[in-house]
Each structure stands twice: as C-alpha cells, then as structure tokens.
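An instance follows:
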Amino acid sequence: MSIRVLIVDQRASARAGLALLVDAEDDLETVGEAESAAQAASGTVAGDADVVVLDAGLRAEDGVDAIERLVDQRPDGKVVVVSVQDEPGRAREAFERGASGYVLRQSVETDLVQAIREVAAGGRYVNPELGARLIAAETAELRRAEDPLSDREREVLRLLALGHTNQEIAAKLVISVRTAEAHRAHIMQKLRLSTRAELVRYAMDEGLLET
C-alpha cells in the first residue's frame, strides 16, 4: 500500500511542488493539503495520513509549535518538518516536540522522499550534514555539562600545563596575579590534583596542549 501524505504549507505553490515530488513515487500518495496546522488538525484527511509534511514557517503559528497538535491528534502518524533554518538547535527542538524528520527546504528535492519513507517505517530522518552538526553540538553540550571547569579556568589550566608562571598567566590574560593564583587553586581543588605533573597529565588527556 502507498504511504499516505498530508502536506501543510501556507503557500499554494509550495504545496503543489511538494505534492509533485510525492506523487511521482509509486509508493507515495498525497491524500490532502492544508494551509495551516489548525486546518490540518480539524480536517478529516489528517486522520488518514501516515506522514504529515509540515512547513516550519507557517504565519498563523510556528510550525514547530504545530507539531504537538498534529501528533496529539494522530499518535500513530509521523511528522516531517520542512524548514529553511539549518541550525542544529532548531532541528533538535522539532524532534523534542514530536517530529520524526527534519528536511531543509534547499535540499527538499533530494531529501523529502527518503525522509517520508524512513519515518513511515518507524525511523527518523535528518539532512546528513545537519545531522552531523547536531551530534557535534550535543556532544559539546554534554562535555560542557560534565566539565567542572569554566572556560577561563581551562585557559589558565592550559597555560599552567605549558609551564607559565602565575605572573606570566596574569599578563597574558590581562588579570591580576592574585586572580591567576585563585584560578590555579580552584582548578587544583575541582580536579582534586596536588602536583603540577598531575595537572599536566590532565591537560594532555583533555587535548588542551594540542596545537
């Protein structure tokens, strides 16, 4: 059986273009169109759709906000968001709201059909390049959450590991010697280190000495 698709976009021309992409495939079928999430949610056709292709730039309401309404109406249905925004944070928000796919408007001709098929099969889809950036961003956030040191303390740690004195660190960072000494004490306390050798080893393990 064909995968039934509902297209939600405020522009008739955009809906027509997306419908052409969908209906050109033997295993996909456009079963309806709507110009707003409210119209899609109130229409009977939404209940027949396996996948909703949703424009993230709706005027009446943010397309990302509309995801929850569509998912609540049909928990078994899937939502693929089409957006011009290629920020990892925006994609992550869409997935957190219940989307199963995130396709960039500029690559919709190459990505949309694959996204529909993958989410209909129970998977998730995100543009490969954006997906890599999303993973990198999440990894960086996790690292920051787990790292007990502030950015300034990591900077001081690096200089200490390179052999700089408190006076030299103060001059390089334009801070007082007393502040540099305080940073050093806090670093040693937070990391539970007692010697310079341990400090250097930690900096090496964290990649702080790499050029």
In short: The longest strand covers residues 28-34. Residues 128-146 form the longest helix (19 residues). The CA atoms of residues 46 and 70 lie 8 Å apart.
